[in-house]
Structure formats: C-alpha cells, structure tokens
Amino acid sequence: MDRDTEDVLDAVGPRLRALRRDRGITLADLAATTGVSESTLSRLESGQRRATLELLLPLARTYDIPLDDLVGAPRTGDPRIHLKPIRRFGMTFIPLSRRPGGIQAFKMIIPARPKPLEPTPQTHEGYEWLYVLNGRLRLVLGERDLTLPAGEAAEFDTSLPHWLGSADGGVVELLILFGPQGMRAHVRSGSHSGIDHEPSGPTTRP
C-alpha cells in the first residue's frame, strides 16, 4: 500500500468522528441506523479498525453524502458537482456544498399547494440565512409573520421558533445557508408543506 493511500485511510477515522459529532448523533443511534455495532464504529473512528466498503456504505447512506467525501479521496480533477436532491415531506432540498460539517448550502423548493398549511414553528441550534429565488415566501419568526418576495433575503438565530412556507400557495424556491444542526432539523422534521425553521432575531434584507 502506498503512502498516499495510507494517509487517506488514516484520516477516515477522525473524519467520521467529526462528522458524527457535527450531526449530533451518538454511537448508539448510529449503530441502530447503520446496523454496525457500537464497538466497531468506535474502533473505526479511533483508527483501531481499517475502513472497508462494507462499513462505509451504510455510513455514507446515513449521512447522505458521497462515498468519496466520506473517505476524503483525492479529487479526480472533474470540477462538476453532481447534485443529489433530497426529498422530505413533499419538499426538495438540493445540496450545493460537498464538504461534511460546517456551513452547508442548499437550494430548497416548496411545492405549490391549493390549500395553505397552518404554521408549526420549530426551534434548533444555529443561525440561518436565506434568499428567495422565486415565488413568495411566508416566514414566521417568533411573533412576526413576514412575506418575502423574490430577491429578498433574511437571516436569523434559529433558537427562536420559525416556520417557512408559501405565502400564496405557489411554488417557492430559495437558497439556504445553515450548519449541521440546522440541516438535520430542516431535512428530518417538517410539516408536510411548510418548512420548520427557528428564528430569534430576524433581519430581512431587500
């Protein structure tokens, strides 16, 4: 095995541990989701066990990231980003960034609905920035109920109750920047037609 390959494999464990902690997932939860035992996951993260395809595939599926990103394999030189839409609760999230952990960029699409949904505000850790590309976004932040047309942006502390949905029942497309905590809350918990977000001190920008 050459030195470059060894370096890649040596970095897998710390990368897996950092990714799991960024997502706020325990070893027990990860074991239950992937079917890989806690002891194996722990040894994999500590470098006491070498990564194998059999172990990495369920982890890549759980984290919903490409296998080469999970391993940290060198780029092939192809500058294209292969987008993989994530569909949850009738909404579509399109990842625009590749690196696990840290700030994540997504395009989000809220589908048209003939009957508007009632807001169900949620909260989570973090800070969020969004920009409306198309449509009219309804943004409920704490006690405030805002309508943002295309071209407007907002940023807010997600520790405040927040919710995103269509203001008029039409399709809404927006760009969102948030960290791992924000991504987990938005992708894994929703209210069918709207989007659960958490606001605290919202600032809107034209």
TrEMBL record:
GO annotation, cellular component aspect: cytosol
InterPro entries, per database record: Cro/C1-type_HTH, Cupin_2, Lambda_DNA-bd_dom_sf, RmlC-like_jellyroll, RmlC_Cupin_sf, TransReg_Diox_bact_type
Sorted UniProt keywords: DNA-binding
Keyword Transcription: no
Domain HTH cro/C1-type as annotated: residue spans: 16-70
Pfam name, any one: HTH_3
Ranges where the record places region Disordered: 187-206
GO MF annotation terms: DNA binding; DNA-binding transcription factor activity
PANTHER family found in the cross-reference section: HTH-TYPE TRANSCRIPTIONAL REGULATOR, METHYLPHOSPHONATE SYNTHASE
Official protein name in the record: Transcriptional regulator, XRE family with cupin sensor
